[in-house]
Structure formats: C-alpha cells, structure tokens
Design goal:
The protein is α/β, with parallel strands linked by helices and about 375 residues long. It folds into two domains: about 10-160, Rossmann fold, CATH 3.40.50.1970; about 165-370, Dehydroquinate synthase-like, alpha domain. Helix content is about 50%, strand content about 15%. The chain has helices at about 20-25, 40-55, 70-80, 95-110, 155-160, 165-175, 180-190, 200-220, 230-250, 255-265, 265-270, 275-290, 295-305, 320-335, 345-360; strands at about 10-15, 30-35, 55-65, 90-95, 115-120, 130-135, 140-145, 150-155. The strands form two sheets. The protein has a six-stranded parallel beta sheet, sandwiched between helices. Strands 6-7 form a two-stranded antiparallel ribbon. Helix 7 runs parallel beside helix 9 (about 230-250) and helix 10 (about 255-265) crosses helix 14. It is globular. The termini are far apart. Bound molecules: zinc ion. Zinc ion (ZN) binds next to helix 12.
Length: about 375
C-alpha cells in the first residue's frame, strides 16, 4: 500500500500573511498562537488586526529555546491554565523550524489542528506532519508524528525573504537531499514517514524539487535577507516546502537524514543547522551509492556556490578522526531510514565513506560565515 499525505492548503506569496484571519477562521475560532519571540514583535500588530476582523479568540505565546519534552509540557500547562483551557480548535505556529515544531507538539498534546506560518525557509517542517524533539544537550531523542499534516501553511515570501541568508542556505541543504533519498527508498520499496511504501508522485515531486533548487538557488539566495522576493526566490521556497516536504514524507528518507542521528551526538556538529547536517549526510550517501568523481565534484561545487558544508571540517568540527566517525556511524546504522538503501551497510562502509568525503571536502573550503 502507498499513502500520499500533504497539507490541506498551501498559500505562498508576498503579503499572504494578511489572509491569516480568513484562513484560520475557516478551521476554528479558538486559537493558540505559538510564535517565535524574535519575530512576534514584527507581526503582532498585524496578527491582532486580522484576528479581530475574523472574530477569533486567541492566546498568544512567545517561544524561544529548544524543542524538548520539558518545553512542550510547560507550554501545554500554560495553555490549559489560560483563557481557552483545553478548548482549543487550532494552534498557529509562527517562526522558523523550532517554533513550527513546538507548535506541532502543542497541537499533538491538545488534539487540535495546526496551521504553520514559516518566517524562514530553513527546513521543510512547515508542510510535514513530523516534529523533532531534542534533549537538554540538543541530542535528537524523538521524531514524533501528528495524525494529520497542517490544515494550512501560510508562506509569506515578503517575511521569509527578510530572514537571514544562512537560514535559506540550510533550507537548500534540506531540499537538495530529497530526490536522492526518495530514489533510494523507491528502489527498495522501503517505508516512508507514513510507514508504508513510497508513492511515485512523491518521488516525482522530490526530483522536480532538486532541479528547481539546482537551477534557482544562487539567484534566489542573492536577495535573501536584503530585498523583496524575486522569481527565483519564490521557486526556491516552493521547492523547499512543497516539493521537498511532501517529497520526503510520502517518498521516504535514506542515509542523508539517517545521519542526523549520529551527527547530533557530536556536540560541535550538533549545533550546525539541520540543513547543513543533512547536506553533509547526502555527500556520504552519494559516496556510498558509488557515484562518479565527476558527479561528486559537481555536487561539491554547488555546495560551495551556495555555502553548504562539504565536510565535517568545513561544518566547524575540529576533531575529525576515526573515533568520531564511529560515534556517528553507530546511531546512523540503527536509524530506520538506513534500511532505505540498495544494499546493507556496515560500520566499515560508513566510516570509509565519511573518510572519503572528508578528504575530498578539503578542496572546498566553504565560507564559514554562511554556516
Ligand atoms: Zn530534513
């Protein structure tokens, strides 16, 4: 059996944040807004105005910090003690990856719908039903699943274009992996995030997303953080959120994302953004796939052009040695996505591939300011 999932509605374009009242009121009237405390002051007045026009009753919670079980419990208690109690129809999660994930966690606890409003394109969390929980040391402890994808995603590209460039670089890293991971999963008819076989439609979306990213990343990045969105930026955001997000969820993941299980155990690497980690993981996956030197060189040149790390050293890790490779390899091999690969991998296979990526990456000193 295959399962194909997606958000019920996806909105993208300059200024579409102002549709928030209409969109949310079509889902429910009692609303908890979980907003990144950095971006909330920039949007709060518009939010109040649009919610008032749609007669929405809202509790607004600013959020900063990490997505841990402790944070999720504290926020749930705050909502239950607040004006709406447990009578919440919808959680609106506004922010980058962490606020989106903690908003999903809150909706999971409250048993209501979720609407995501990404303010940066740093990963594909806004469209997916998954969220990632860390411990107090930022070690990944759980990938949790909602029963449904977000009811709506509101991607206002005026807002997203104002986010720091490094966030979009990470988003490109998260998007570039999907076609290769979905292809591996499809080849072995592995399990997707729905626990069933991959859908051909999702594979097609992931492949289309890869082409868009390769064709438009540099031009789209040129305006990131400095100017209104251009056409390339719009395409890039759609490729990241829609093609990459839906592509991985119903198409499946493989080695690139499995590696985050191991990478998050190395403190210096754990601090790097998810997109940088999986982009590195993709280089390891492509090496394990036996891709030609020309293919790998082309991919490294692309990474260098956009500011993605081509090795653990360029990711900022100073202790690159076999001991660290072993620390990373163990949990990576134990991750379920590792089964979505055309051969069974050993620790030696993975360590050898990491060594080769490290050696080749030396020639591509990625600009550290982008990481
Ligand atoms: Zn990802």
């Amino acid at each position: 059996m295959i399962i194909f999932g997606s958000p019920s509605r996806y909105y993208q374009g300059p200024g579409c944040f102002d549709r928030i009242g209409d969109i949310v009121s079509g889902i429910g009237k009692r609303v908890v807004v979980l907003a990144d405390s950095f971006v909330l002051p920039m949007l709060e007045e518009r939010l109040h105005r649009r919610f008032a026009q749609s007669a929405l009753e809202a509790q607004i919670l600013p959020f900063s910090g990490d997505v841990t079980h402790g944070t999720i419990a504290t926020l749930t208690a705050e909502v239950e003690a607040g004006p709406l109690g447990r009578q919440v129809d919808v959680v609106v999660a506004i922010g980058g990856g962490k606020a989106i994930d903690v908003g999903k966690a809150l909706c999971h606890k409250l048993g209501c719908a979720v609407v995501t409003v990404p303010t940066a394109a740093a990963n594909d969390a806004p469209t997916s039903k998954n969220y990632v929980v860390y411990d107090d040391h930022h070690v990944l402890v759980e990938v949790a699943h909602l029963s449904e994808n977000p009811k709506a995603v509101i991607a206002d590209t005026d807002i997203i274009a104002g986010a720091p460039r490094a966030l979009l670089v990470a988003g490109i890293g998260d998007a570039v992996t999907k076609a290769f991971e979905a292809a591996q999963c499809y080849a072995v008819q592995g399990k997707t995030m729905f626990g069933e076989k991959p859908s051909l439609s999702a594979l097609a979306l992931a492949e289309a997303g890869y082409r868009v990213v390769r064709d438009h990343a540099v031009e789209g990045l040129a305006i990131a953080g400095t100017a209104p969105p251009n056409a390339a930026f719009e395409k890039l955001v759609e490729a990241l959120f829609v093609m990459g997000g839906i592509g991985f969820e119903s198409g499946g993941l493989s080695i690139a994302h499995a590696m985050t299980r191991g990478l998050s155990l190395v403190p210096e690497v754990a601090m790097a953004m998810h997109g940088q980690q999986v982009a590195y993981g993709l280089l390891v996956q492509l090496t394990l796939e036996g891709r030609s030197e020309d293919f790998l060189a082309d991919m490294r040149a692309f990474y260098d052009a956009v500011g993605l790390a081509t090795s653990l050293s360029t990711l900022g890790f100073s202790g690159v040695e076999d001991g660290a490779f072993r620390v990373i390899a163990g949990p990576t091999l134990a991750a379920p996505h590792t089964k979505n690969f055309t051969r069974t991998l050993s620790e030696a296979d993975l360590i050898d591939a990491m060594r080769r990526v490290e050696a080749a990456g030396v020639n591509f000193p990625t600009r550290t300011g982008d990481i």
